[in-house]
Write the structure tokens for this entry.
Amino acid sequence: MGRTLIRQRLWPVHVILAVGAAAMVTPFLWQLITSLQSTGEATSVPPHFLPSWQWGNYSQVFRDTPFAEQFWNSVVQTVVRVLAQVLFCSMAAYVLARLRFPGRNALFLLMLAVLMVPSQVYLLPQYQLVQNMGLLNTLGGVVLPGLFSAFGTFMLRQFFCCCRTRSRRRRGWTVPAPSGSSGR
């Protein structure tokens, strides 16, 4: 087939992709335009599509809100949650994958059942726990509920189950040798 024939067949695909791209970019453009309007223009009906270009809105946001403090809180929360989940989830997953004990499968099924419950169901009980601990409006109250993850434990357990041991005498685990190698 010639190039012109291929191009003729692909133009509907390009039109559909262009319409989809415009639909994806429109909310971001609308957000940018609204951020440059005055409060009256942003809340007017019908909406104004051309802003009055008030660039001072951005400096006002940084002046009126403690942006540096909020950014630092986000960094601390992210780092603590990631480190805690890697630590706790990997320990729990290793136990569920490698150690044999009574009730191991039941505990794993209970963990899977936790994954099936929507997170909104846990919202009020977690709030009450944080309130009873006296951690409302603190960074610890935000970090504490996210220190452990059933999903992270499940994923790491599946990883540990796939790792073979080299010999039955050794208790440690190793990553499987690449295919085609002797495994020595």
Notes: The helical segments are 3-35, 39-42, 56-64, 67-98, 104-116, 123-132, 139-143, 150-162. Residues 68-162 form one domain. DSSP finds eight helices and no strands in the chain.
